[in-house]
From TrEMBL:
<keyword id="KW-0378">Hydrolase</keyword>
<comment type="pathway">
    <text>Cofactor biosynthesis; 7,8-dihydroneopterin triphosphate biosynthesis; 7,8-dihydroneopterin triphosphate from GTP: step 1/1.</text>
</comment>
<keyword id="KW-0554">One-carbon metabolism</keyword>
<comment type="subunit">
    <text>Homopolymer.</text>
</comment>
<dbReference type="InterPro" id="IPR043133">
    <property type="entry name" value="GTP-CH-I_C/QueF"/>
</dbReference>
<comment type="similarity">
    <text>Belongs to the GTP cyclohydrolase I family.</text>
</comment>
<keyword id="KW-0547">Nucleotide-binding</keyword>
<dbReference type="InterPro" id="IPR001474">
    <property type="entry name" value="GTP_CycHdrlase_I"/>
</dbReference>
<dbReference type="Pfam" id="PF01227">
    <property type="entry name" value="GTP_cyclohydroI"/>
</dbReference>
<dbReference type="InterPro" id="IPR020602">
    <property type="entry name" value="GTP_CycHdrlase_I_dom"/>
</dbReference>
<dbReference type="InterPro" id="IPR043134">
    <property type="entry name" value="GTP-CH-I_N"/>
</dbReference>
<protein>
    <recommendedName>
        <fullName>GTP cyclohydrolase 1</fullName>
        <ecNumber>3.5.4.16</ecNumber>
    </recommendedName>
</protein>
<feature type="domain" description="GTP cyclohydrolase I">
    <location>
        <begin position="7"/>
        <end position="183"/>
    </location>
</feature>
<feature type="binding site">
    <location>
        <position position="79"/>
    </location>
    <ligand>
        <name>Zn(2+)</name>
    </ligand>
</feature>
<keyword id="KW-0342">GTP-binding</keyword>
<feature type="binding site">
    <location>
        <position position="76"/>
    </location>
    <ligand>
        <name>Zn(2+)</name>
    </ligand>
</feature>
<keyword id="KW-0479">Metal-binding</keyword>
Length: 188
C-alpha cells in the first residue's frame, strides 16, 4: 500500500465531505486512517504457511478439536463498515493437530480484509483443512453488521449466522451434530 497516496486520498475525501483537513482535530487523521487501514487489511498479505508456521504436531488422535467464541472484527466489502462477532472452529484430526492459537490467527487473517461473511467462513474452513490435513472441518460465524445497524435497514438485533462444513463434517450428520452441540447450537 502506498501510504502517502492513501493519506492524500483521505485528505481529498475529507474536503469532499465539507471538512477542513487542516483544522487541528483532522490534521493527523489521514495518517491515522492510513495506519488503521493498513492493519485492517493486513489479511490481504501473508500466507497460511507463515501463520501456521511450524505449529502442526504429530499426535495419534482422530477426535474432534474445537476453538469456540473466537472474537472477530472484519469489514464488509459493500460499505467498508465493520461487522463483528464470533467464530467457532472445529476439526477432526487425522494424526496431526494444530497449535490451538493458530485457529484464532487464521480467523484474524481472513477477517482483516474487505469481506463478506460467507466467504470469510469458507476461507477459514479451507485454511484449517489444508494446514492440518484434517479429516473434516466445521466453522460457524455469528456476526452483526454495522451496515445493517447504523444505516440502511437499521436493524439493531439481527445476527447473521454462516457455516461451512468440509469432509466428514459434510458427510456425517453425527459429526456435524457433535460439533454443533459442543459449540452450543442446537441446529443451524
Ligand atoms: N450476503 C451478505 N450480504 C452482505 C454482507 N455484508 C453486507 N451485505 C449486504 O450487501 C447488500 C448490498 O446491497 P445494495 O442494495 O447493493 O446496497 P445498499 O443500497 O447499500 O443496501 P442496503 O444495505 O439494503 O441499504 C446489502 O443487502 C447488505 O446487507 C455479507 O457479509 N454477506
Ligand atoms: Zn455492508
Amino acid at each position: 500500500m502506498d501510504t502517502a497516496r492513501v493519506e492524500e486520498l483521505v485528505r481529498e475525501l475529507l474536503r469532499e465531505l465539507g471538512e477542513d483537513p487542516d483544522r487541528e482535530g483532522l490534521r493527523q487523521t489521514p495518517a491515522r486512517v492510513a495506519r488503521s487501514l493498513t492493519f485492517l487489511t493486513s489479511g490481504h498479505r501473508g500466507t497460511i504457511d507463515e501463520i501456521v508456521h511450524q505449529a502442526v504436531f504429530a499426535q495419534p488422535t482422530h477426535n474432534m478439536v474445537i476453538a469456540r467464541d473466537i472474537e472477530l472484527y472484519s469489514m464488509c466489502e459493500h460499505h467498508i463498515l465493520p461487522f463483528f462477532g464470533r467464530a467457532h472452529v472445529g476439526y477432526i484430526a487425522r494424526g496431526r493437530v494444530l497449535g490451538i492459537s493458530k485457529l484464532a490467527r487464521l480467523v484474524d487473517h481472513f477477517a482483516r480484509r474487505l469481506q463478506i461473511q460467507e466467504r470469510l467462513t469458507e476461507e477459514v474452513a479451507a485454511a484449517v483443512m489444508e494446514s492440518v490435513g484434517a479429516d473434516g472441518v466445521g466453522v460457524v460465524v455469528e456476526a452483526q453488521h454495522l451496515c445493517m445497524m447504523m444505516r440502511g435497514v437499521e436493524k439493531q438485533n439481527s445476527m447473521m449466522t454462516t457455516s461451512a462444513v468440509l469432509g466428514c463434517f459434510r458427510r456425517s450428520v453425527a459429526t456435524r451434530t457433535e460439533f454443533l452441540t459442543l459449540v452450543g447450537r442446537r441446529h443451524l
